Amino acid sequence: xxxxxxxxxxxxxxxxxxxxxxxxxxxxxxxxxxxxxxxxxxxxxxxxxxxxxxxxxxxxxxxxxxxxxxxxxxxxxxxxxxxxxxxxxxxxxxxxxxxxxxxxxxxxxxxxxxxxxxxxxxxxxxxxxxxxxxxxxxxxxxxxxxxxxxxxxx
Length: 154
Description:
Elements: E1 7-10, E2 14-16, H1 20-30, E3 40-46, H2 48-59, E4 67-73, E5 78-84, H3 86-96, H4 100-115, H5 123-143, E6 149-151
Parallel strand pairs: 1-3, 3-5
Antiparallel strand pairs: 2-6, 4-5
């Protein structure tokens, strides 16, 4: 039975396909590679102010960021939470000329991998994280698993 994956969209400019974020987590749980701990894994898509406040309050850094993860307590049935910034994804996607949905999907994968124990604090750890992200993106592409997300401009 797949884990519970509650999804909260607190970003008014984000349009997200129903069930797609949870489906990505369920697919990541089934593929080879590092896995997030067992239990409920929540996903929150936050507006820029709320995301910046989390970054400042919990990590002491008020600058914009893409994803923040909070480990849970697997013994209590909670794997953790992934908090994503769709506004940051829209900015970077526009700057890099990449699709918005792909950038946001990358953030979701990145957060999942953080919960699975990967980090990106050293050059070697960053390389391992990038390799795991690329493998997950390739695998999701082969599975033709949809991730529909769009950013509504003002």
